[in-house]
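User: Hey, quick favor. My workstation is busy. Could you predict this chain's structure for me?
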Amino acid sequence: MRSDDPEIAAMFRLNDQSYGMFITEEVGASSGTTLTFMRDAILENFALGAGIAAEDVVVYDVEETEVAGHAAETVIYGGAINGLDVVFLNTLTIGEVRTVQTVTYYLRKSLEDADRATHQGFLALTKLD
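Assistant: No problem, here it is.
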């Protein structure tokens, strides 16, 4: 499945409640992009969609990880958007000139252990250049 959003490189439907996507942005460390900046940006973006303040977004965890040999960080957060409960696992990988978000999200009220396992499987299949 492809998105009409040019930043979303690919979207996948894992099942009726679970989805994955890659978001690529042509900004990276050389332009000053940091994990802190990206973490704040994704939480503010979610808050905007949910109609709440960024500090009210439920953040379950922030974990250091690795994607295809590159250092990364996974931000796990969620809440309701237009009455629909969603949990996101969003792994941020910042390269020199490109940032990639590897995202899985689940239509449910809270994080489940299976969500972490699915996300880790998605990361294990990810290749970055």
